[in-house]
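Please decode residue identities from the backbone states below.
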């Protein structure tokens, strides 16, 4: 005799559980952007989602597990908005430009809400543990992708032979950190323009004369970037 098929109600149970967990993570992510990962708690999420504490706890056995899930979800969304769309651009400077442009777009949207990578670094920089590890892994994964884009740009001949790939990647990251500080904390109205100018200056110093999107200025022999 063949086993009886599972009822529709039984089959829907795991799917409903996943949907509920996704709702909790989304609410926790929005809350963490405002008050930081350290401000998250089972009770706070239960209040925001209008669920019971036991209901939230059933999906996340601890506050730490909730925090890690938020970090992973943030990283997934970051990749979807910044990294993957840039892969449609050609290797080299076009892709590096796309990565920076996408990063700037996301950063601009986070000026009011906050960046979990940055706020999390402040909260967990001197606190070893799984949450810090999850944050560091996510940031290192993204920075490694940015560095690969710089290396590819050099391999394509778009950067000068003497260009320091690690320094270029470092300075690009520094621009984003400065933008968050200037725009979010100091409320500087020129921060976005200055960050873009900083990126252009990096390319003007490092790009080869025949790189796409770059023209040589015969008057002063400098390179200028074209957006």
């Amino acid at each position: 005799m063949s086993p009886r098929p599972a009822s529709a109600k039984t089959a829907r149970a795991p799917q409903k559980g996943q949907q509920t967990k996704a709702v909790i993570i989304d609410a926790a992510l929005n809350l963490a952007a405002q008050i930081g990962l350290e401000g998250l708690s089972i009770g706070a999420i239960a209040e925001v989602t209008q669920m019971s504490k036991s209901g939230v706890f059933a999906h996340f056995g601890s506050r730490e597990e909730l925090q890690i899930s938020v970090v992973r979800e943030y990283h997934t969304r970051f990749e979807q908005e910044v990294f993957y769309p840039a892969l449609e651009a050609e290797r080299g400077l076009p892709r590096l430009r796309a990565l920076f442009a996408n990063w700037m777009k996301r950063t601009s949207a986070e000026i009011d809400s906050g960046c979990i990578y940055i706020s999390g670094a402040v909260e967990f920089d001197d606190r070893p543990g799984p949450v810090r590890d999850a944050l560091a892994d996510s940031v290192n994964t993204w920075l490694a992708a940015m560095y690969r884009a710089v290396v590819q740009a050099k391999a394509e001949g778009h950067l000068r032979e003497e260009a320091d790939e690690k320094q270029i990647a470092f300075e690009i990251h520094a621009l984003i950190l400065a933008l968050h500080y200037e725009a979010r904390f100091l409320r500087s109205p020129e921060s976005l323009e200055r960050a873009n100018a900083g990126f252009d200056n990096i390319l003007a110093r490092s790009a080869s004369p025949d790189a796409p999107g770059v023209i040589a200025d015969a008057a002063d022999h400098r390179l200028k970037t074209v957006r």
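Observation: Confidence is low (pLDDT under 50) at residues 215-223.
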